Amino acid sequence: MRAIYPGSFDPVTFGHLDIIERASLLFDSVIVAVSRNPLKNPLFSTEERVEMLREVLALYPNVEVDSFEGLTVDYALQKKAKHIVRGLRVISDFENEFRMALTNKKLTGVVETIFLMTKAEYSCISSSTVKELASFGGSLSCFVPPLVEERLIEKNKNRSFKLEKIQEMCAV
């Protein structure tokens, strides 16, 4: 049985890793699929997100990382995956995820969505929160792996440098 776990993973968090690890125990093969959404403005490029995921998931032999654009359900069919794994942190996540699951089922008739509740200690973690914490220099060690923390710090140094240069040019 093959499953995909789609998401933006901008950046990957311990909450994502919790879901991936548990999915790897349930399925023979799990594809962690980084979505390219032209309507979003991610902090990390698709390539950077794929690279980070490959590095932090290297110890899982039945997990591969890929990227895709378009409908998740079309990607699942292309990869011959009959299951889409979705993580739920809080009750409010369920409404949107449930709607998407019903839509995907209606579109294909064969792709099932499997919901996994994240562990309680990860329920407050979101990529958006992590990016905001990073932008203010907050501690990230309990939210993301060290590699991801390093990349976030580096990204924010570059952004701060660019902002300072813009401010200097405007002051002239």
Automatic annotation (TrEMBL):
Substrate binds at S8, K40, T72, R86. It is found in: Cytoplasm. ATP binds at S8, F9, H16, G87, L88, R89, E97, Y122, S123, C124, I125, S126, S127, S128. The keyword Transferase applies. One of its GO terms (cellular component) is cytoplasm. Keywords: ATP-binding, Coenzyme A biosynthesis, Cytoplasm, Magnesium, Nucleotide-binding, Nucleotidyltransferase, Transferase. It catalyses: (R)-4'-phosphopantetheine + ATP + H(+) = 3'-dephospho-CoA + diphosphate. The keyword Magnesium applies. Its EC number is 2.7.7.3. Reversibly transfers an adenylyl group from ATP to 4'-phosphopantetheine, yielding dephospho-CoA (dPCoA) and pyrophosphate. Homohexamer. This is Phosphopantetheine adenylyltransferase.
